[in-house]
C-alpha cells in the first residue's frame, strides 16, 4: 500500500527533490512482505483480534524474531497498526487481506506477484529487440493453483459485469443462436440465455466447456484456425482480443463477423485505457498491457483500433458503452452489413 506521505514529502518526490524510485523500491518490499504475511496467515490471525509479537508468532507457527521484522515493515507501509501495544490489522488489511473477507484480494496479489517475478525476466531485452517472451498459458498450465486462481478471477469478473452487459445491448427479437468465441467459463453465454428464453449458445475455446445451463454447449477449437459455423444471430468476443497480436486480433474480429448472419450482432467487450478510471486503475491497466505484451504478444488496444477492426470486418458500429461497473471496460455493438 502506498505510504501516506505528509504533503511536504509528497511534493519533494513529485518535484524531483527526493528520489521518486525510492517509493517504488519500498513498494517492491511491501509487495513481498504482504505476500509473505498472506501465505503465513498473519492477517487472518489478526482478524480474530490484536496480538503481541509472541502471540502472532504462535498463531502463524513462525519464528518470533522473523515475525517482528515482517510486522515492522507491514506497520511502516500501512497494513498493520498498533492497538495498546499489540499488532492489529489496519482497515485496508482487514478488508482486503483476510481470507474470510468477501473482498479478499490476497489471491490476486499472489497471482500477479508470481507472474511478475517469474515472467517479467528479460523485459529489457524484449523491449530492446521487440521480441516478447510469450508462453503465458504454457507457464500457467504447469501451475495448478495459480491456474485455478486465474480462472476464478475470470469468472469473478464475468459474474460482476454480465448483468450490466446483458442489460446494455438488446439482442435481435428473433435471435436464437449465439456464438461465444473464447468464452471459457461460459458465464456471459449463460446470462444471455437466461435473459432470452429462445436463445441457444455455443462457447468455443481451447478447452471444451461443460455448462450447467441446458441451452449452453461447449466446443474445443482454436479460435484462429478451427472451423466455425456461420449464420449466427449474435457473436461475442469478450475479453479476448487483448491476448493476441494486432494482426491476429484483426483476423479474429473478421472470423467473428463471417460467423454472423446478415444483420447479425457482433458484441466486443475489451479492457480499454479510459480517462474515466482513477489514477490507480490507469496505472494498473498500463501494467496489465505490459504483461500482455511481454507474455502473450498482446496489449490493451485503443478503442479506435478495435473500431477499425470492426469496420474492416464489414460491420457498422451501432453503440459503444463505457461500463459503470468497470471504468476500464468498453462494450462495442456492431451490425453486420449495416450502412
UniProtKB/TrEMBL annotation:
Q: Keyword Zinc on this protein?
A: no
Q: Which terms are listed as keywords in the entry?
A: Methyltransferase, S-adenosyl-L-methionine, Transferase
Q: Listed GO molecular functions?
A: O-methyltransferase activity; protein dimerization activity
Report the active site residues.
242
Q: Which GO terms describe its biological process?
A: methylation
Ranges for domain O-methyltransferase C-terminal? 121-314
Q: Where is the O-methyltransferase dimerisation domain?
A: 27-98
What is this protein called in UniProt? SAM-dependent methyltransferase
Does the record carry Transferase as a key word? yes
Q: Which PANTHER family match?
A: O-METHYLTRANSFERASE CICE, PUTATIVE (AFU_ORTHOLOGUE AFUA_4G14580)-RELATED
Amino acid at each position: 500500500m502506498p505510504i501516506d506521505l505528509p504533503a511536504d514529502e509528497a511534493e519533494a518526490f513529485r518535484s524531483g527533490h527526493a528520489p521518486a524510485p525510492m517509493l517504488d523500491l519500498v513498494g517492491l518490499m511491501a509487495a513481498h512482505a504482504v505476500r509473505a504475511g498472506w501465505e503465513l496467515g498473519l492477517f487472518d490471525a489478526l482478524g480474530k483480534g490484536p496480538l503481541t509479537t509472541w502471540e502472532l508468532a504462535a498463531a502463524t507457527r513462525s519464528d518470533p524474531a522473523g515475525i517482528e521484522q515482517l510486522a515492522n515493515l507491514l506497520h511502516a507501509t500501512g497494513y498493520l497498526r498498533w492497538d495498546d501495544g499489540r499488532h492489529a490489522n489496519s482497515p485496508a488489511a482487514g478488508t482486503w487481506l483476510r481470507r474470510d473477507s468477501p473482498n479478499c484480494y490476497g489471491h490476486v496479489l499472489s497471482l500477479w506477484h508470481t507472474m511478475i517475478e517469474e515472467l517479467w525476466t528479460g523485459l529489457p531485452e524484449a523491449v530492446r529487440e521487440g521480441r516478447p517472451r510469450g508462453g503465458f498459458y504454457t507457464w500457467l498450465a504447469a501451475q495448478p493453483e495459480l491456474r485455478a486462481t486465474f480462472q476464478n478471477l475470470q469468472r469473478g469478473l464475468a459474474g460482476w459485469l454480465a448483468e450490466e452487459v446483458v442489460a446494455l445491448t438488446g439482442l435481435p427479437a428473433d435471435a436464437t443462436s449465439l456464438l461465444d468465441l473464447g468464452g471459457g467459463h461460459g458465464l456471459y453465454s449463460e446470462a444471455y440465455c437466461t435473459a432470452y428464453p429462445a436463445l441457444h449458445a455455443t462457447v468455443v475455446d481451447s478447452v471444451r466447456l461443460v455448462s450447467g445451463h441446458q441451452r449452453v454447449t461447449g466446443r474445443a477449437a482454436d479460435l484462429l484456425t478451427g472451423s466455425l459455423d456461420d449464420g449466427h444471430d449474435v457473436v461475442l468476443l469478450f475479453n479476448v482480443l487483448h491476448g493476441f497480436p494486432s494482426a491476429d486480433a484483426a483476423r479474429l474480429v473478421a472470423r467473428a463477423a463471417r460467423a454472423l448472419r446478415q444483420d447479425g450482432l457482433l458484441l466486443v467487450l475489451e479492457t480499454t485505457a479510459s480517462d474515466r478510471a482513477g489514477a490507480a486503475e490507469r496505472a494498473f491497466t498500463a501494467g496489465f498491457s505490459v504483461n500482455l505484451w511481454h507474455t502473450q504478444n498482446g496489449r490493451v488496444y485503443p478503442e479506435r483500433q478495435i473500431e477499425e477492426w470492426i469496420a474492416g470486418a464489414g460491420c457498422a458500429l451501432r453503440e459503444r458503452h463505457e461500463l459503470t461497473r468497470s471504468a476500464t471496460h468498453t462494450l462495442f455493438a456492431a451490425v453486420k452489413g449495416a450502412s
